């Protein structure tokens, strides 16, 4: 019966492969052969490929789904030619921005590629530092939401009063820790494989360095400039990247504890040269075969895997309004302008830019967009507007250096309580109303606020957090080519 079942499943897998290949162009089929060759060589030959295990992380983006389909095609192609094929571990880290829609898209890609019942594929997710079987129907745990929210607040407050707050910028550190842990779970893996572009790799590694510095981890003396050096960069940070940030506070450990072993050496297999291309041509594969339901505008505007463009633009709007004394609309529009510039640099069709302007460039829709963004901030970050403003002003770090400015701009009625607020942040006795106000306005416990009070902020050096990487020439083009201004002129 087992043999009959195996034969039946092998037939199903080959049918999946044939349908998948029918969506590939000639260039993609050629790239697939190069990927197969790259994997076989990395494994040490076709006779060893059956014991070779590859890790891929799945964030639910179009690129992640496409990369998985490409890897699955390679896995099934090798299986049809050789006695065995490589093992594949696909892991998802659940963060604040991991919406039910993202989980549904991941599930659809798994279902279309028939990975759930294939013993050669592990599909797992991490929630609150616990490795679990992937399930798109299981909501994120409240403990996981609290962990993500607290990490975001602590690291966000440590960026300094002059640093621009980027939604989910803290996720670089969480993802770095995730890479480190999931690579050594259940016997570890031989290689990490990714289709991230050079720019995306540099952006991630820069974000990881920035957040590691905020978290008081050892200075990274030999920073990596590509994922080739990712694990050598992660190893000195240790398995718990938050140990210094929460020293003296109770934290949850990675679980199941007995499943994590000392990581064996893992390589990096870079396939960005094989999977990068015209995403417009891949929509049939993504939608008709994998069943994705992507938001096309969101997908093109999104600068990273963690935060939606609407949420990012909203936070820029709040910062412009409350911190800089400008109009909310100016900060919001500036973010969209920069994103449009990057779309045009990537030579995306002008119709997509027009769609962005239709959604985000209409000044009459700004009030509605702000309402939608506030709701998303509450859902994804767990923060109301008062707590978002507190985070933008960072009033607690550096012994409360920014407290007075924050109170004058947002809570002038609390200026009289400044001495009591400083007492509370120093860990001394203070009126209950004062401590409750601190909790309500920040979203943090008093003990963590006291921790921030005794810490020094870490200024962002070079590019702003999450900056898309504009050069001096880009900046000039940005000023000259005001996309929203062009749209207004057309009207």
TrEMBL record:
<protein>
    <submittedName>
        <fullName>Uncharacterized protein</fullName>
    </submittedName>
</protein>
């Amino acid at each position: 019966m087992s043999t009959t079942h195996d034969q039946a499943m092998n037939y199903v897998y080959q049918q999946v492969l044939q349908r998948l290949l029918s969506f590939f162009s000639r260039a993609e089929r050629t790239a697939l052969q190069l990927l197969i060759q790259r994997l076989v060589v990395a494994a040490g030959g076709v006779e060893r490929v059956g014991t070779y295990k590859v890790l891929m992380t799945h964030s639910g983006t179009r690129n992640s789904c496409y990369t998985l389909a490409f890897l699955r095609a390679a896995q099934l192609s090798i299986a049809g030619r050789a006695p065995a094929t490589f093992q594949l571990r696909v892991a998802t880290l659940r963060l604040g921005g991991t919406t039910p829609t993202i989980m549904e898209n991941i599930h659809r890609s798994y279902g279309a590629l028939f990975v759930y019942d294939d013993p050669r594929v592990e599909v797992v997710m991490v929630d609150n530092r616990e490795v679990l079987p992937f399930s798109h129907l299981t909501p994120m745990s409240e403990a996981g939401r609290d962990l993500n929210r607290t990490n975001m607040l602590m690291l966000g407050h440590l960026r300094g009063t002059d640093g621009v707050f980027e939604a989910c910028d803290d996720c670089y550190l969480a993802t770095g820790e995730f890479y480190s842990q999931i690579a050594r779970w259940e016997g570890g893996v031989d290689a990490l494989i990714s289709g991230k572009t050079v720019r995306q790799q540099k952006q991630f590694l820069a974000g990881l360095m920035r957040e590691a510095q905020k978290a008081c981890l050892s200075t990274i003396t030999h920073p990596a400039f590509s994922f080739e050096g990712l694990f050598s960069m992660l190893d000195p940070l240790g398995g718990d990247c938050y140990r210094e940030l929460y020293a003296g506070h109770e934290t949850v450990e990675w679980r199941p504890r007995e499943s994590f072993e000392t990581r064996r050496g893992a390589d990096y297999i870079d396939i960005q040269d094989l999977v990068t291309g015209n995403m417009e041509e891949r929509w049939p594969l993504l939608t008709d075969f994998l069943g994705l339901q992507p938001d096309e505008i969101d997908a093109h505007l999104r600068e990273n895997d963690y935060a939606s463009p609407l949420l990012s633009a909203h936070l820029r709007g709040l910062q412009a309004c409350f911190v800089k004394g400008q109009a909310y609309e100016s900060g919001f529009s500036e973010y969209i302008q920069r994103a449009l510039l990057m779309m045009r640099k990537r030579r995306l069709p002008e119709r997509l830019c027009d769609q962005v302007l239709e959604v985000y460039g209409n000044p009459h829709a700004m009030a509605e967009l702000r309402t939608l963004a506030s709701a998303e901030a509450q859902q994804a970050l767990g923060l109301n507007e008062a707590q978002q403003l507190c985070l933008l002003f960072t009033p607690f770090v550096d012994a409360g250096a920014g407290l007075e400015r924050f109170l004058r701009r947002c809570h002038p009625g609390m200026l009289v309580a400044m001495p009591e607020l400083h007492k509370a942040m120093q860990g001394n006795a203070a009126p209950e109303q004062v401590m409750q106000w601190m909790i309500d306005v920040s979203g943090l416990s008093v003990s963590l606020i006291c921790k921030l009070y005794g810490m020094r902020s870490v200024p962002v050096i070079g590019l702003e957090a999450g900056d898309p990487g504009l050069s001096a020439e880009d900046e000039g083009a940005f000023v000259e080519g005001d996309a929203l201004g062009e749209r207004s002129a057309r009207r």
